[in-house]
Amino acid sequence: MGVEGCSKCIKYMLFFFNFIFWLAGGVILGVALWLRHDPKTSNLLGLELDGAQAPNTFYISVHILIAVGAVMMVVGFLGCYGAIQESQCLLGTFFACLVILFACEVAAGIWGFMHRDTVSKEMITFYDTAYDKAMTQSLADPNNKQPATAVLKVFHETLNCCGKGLGTSFITKITDTLGMTDLCPSGSQKVNCHHRINELFSDKIYLIGIAALVVAVIMIFEMIFSMVLCCGIRNSPVY
To answer: For 94, which of 57, 79, 119, 165 could close a Cys bridge (C-beta 3.0–4.6 Å)?
Structure first.
């Protein structure tokens, strides 16, 4: 016979929240793997120009998410098992793991908020460098396909955009029409690539932020329930 009354209710509530936590870990792991292998981001972040690799800040964040998702699944299982077995040792270990995870999540959230525009800015700078080099090389020798031209066309075809802004987009389309360059994809929309890059990475950053907020709320409830259950087990006459 184990805990009774309110403690028994807390026990099953903790099991339920741990199960949700375990599922959330699986979802985060799945989303992180999707972000890592998404065709658009993979095409852009795998580019190389004059020996310089495309900025990998986004991938660093994604790899951290993969690790967090895996750890959450392990900790969630530990919490479920500890709640069902009414083990003070397992619940105490679970609580300690939650505190560490919560502290790491808060620190990562602060860092992410402070650097939320870094990924987009780095990619825009990389794009601008490729654009300037490709335009210069193409106007000098339209028949000579340089690496910068290949990098730029990957951006344009992947994002269905052209140019750094409305003016450069218009100019590039004119030079393409006149046969002086071959940079914009045929039938591309009149959208500049700065807008597309911001749209691509900002949406993904907000998705990560929402997931982190939901997990943080679940973790707070779990820490409260695990301590209440641990105290209930300690005060139970059976133990």
So the answer is: 79
